[in-house]
Amino acid sequence: MKLSLASLSKFDFFGVLVLRLGAGALVAFHGFPMLLGGADAWTEVGSGAAIARLPESLFLVAGLAACIIQVFGGLLLALGLFTRGAALFLTIVSAFALANVIQSGDFHLTFFAHLQVTLLFFGLLFIGPGRFSLDRKGI
Fold it and tell me: CA separation (Å) from 107 to 1, 24, 90, 104?
């Protein structure tokens, strides 16, 4: 018996849906407690922007922006609404997290998790929303 997975390519739209729903929901779920954490949590998250030479006085704003992007960008990604824009902003936020992990020298599981998430969002930037999305023309 020959097992061929090539026939699954006609369901590629389902794969994009699973990626969008899974990644979007997970990043929104990850960002929500930080968004509710208040100024201390936002400043801690924003301290990651120090790698871009952002002044310490702007850590609060950068952290709040990162939390908002994670929560609302994740929801938009899951819904398939403004997919490429959400993927772009999520790529930037996760790239900053990856850069901070690299700078810290922690090349264990944290590095690979951040790298995978960054590549996932970067890939979705090019793939787009897929067939089942609110971005799709004609809906």
Answer: 43, 25, 22, 9
